[in-house]
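re: that complex we talked abt at group meeting.

here r the seqs, copy pasted straight from the sheet so there may be weird spacing, ignore it
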Amino acid sequence: MGPAESGVEQPSATVPSTTVPRLDPESAAWLADLAGTGPRQEAALARLHAMLVRIARREAARRAPRLQLAGPELDDLADQAAADALLAITGKLGQFRGGSRFTTWAYKFVILEVSAKIGRHFWRRPGVRMDDEDWARLPASFGFDPAQEAEWRDLLAALRRAVDQELTARQRRVFVALVLAGVPLDALVIELESSRNAIYKTMFDARRKLRAALAANGYLSDDPDRPRRS
Amino acid sequence: MTGWPHLDRFLRTDPRDVGCAEAMGLLHVYAELVAAGGPAEQRYPGIVAHLRACGPCGEDFEGLLAALRDDEAG
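got the structure back, here u go
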């Protein structure tokens, strides 16, 4: 999903509808100031930008231990995220429905921008490929004990057959990138010029197909709550 | 539960899962409810199912919740 898609409190068939509540005074003041003109608007924009920079830097620092990013580069990523979030927020003020405080809504934008920037940064690493079919990484990824290879060797072979035979070309491509090549989902979104939602849905359908195939061969239960056939 | 819990969990799909777009559309509402100790699981089971299964959306939720809690802590 691109961050720009995420601002609207969408009505949904699967989650309760959000009635439009009255804005709390602080949120109402933010909206009035940002929608205003002149020095009042400029001051509000400066306050909002400072707030977004603070949240972005904190969020980038929170994620830093899992990234190959630190120092000025990390701060630069956070500052870019804050700048882009500010643009997105000011462009979508009319979509804020008051389901939360204004600041919480604004925080969401900047956190999604940090995610998107981290996804983009992934491709700067040397030697990264989305079609790297490293099946040897699967046992460790799924916690298979090397000492018990005799027990999981057939399962792994069945999984590989199912990936080759049951998945569509797109599902297989996404599976290979995410699971075998270790590409983060947000990075794959950029590479395939897609959305987080679309990639997730592709993988969701692939996971369902793979479970069904493994269940048909007795490796997993079709119903996760039922024990595996031995 | 199976003899392959990681694989089993990875391949498990929840029909209540609303997907990324819906979950992110309401993430601010959901996160505020969680931060306030409200009945988030009962009110938004589809978002809960999604955040359990989707790493990137779960990470965004954790970040937003951390920001709210930092604000509360002052």
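couple things i noticed - Chain A has two domains: 3-122, 135-216. Chain A is about 60% helix and 0% strand.
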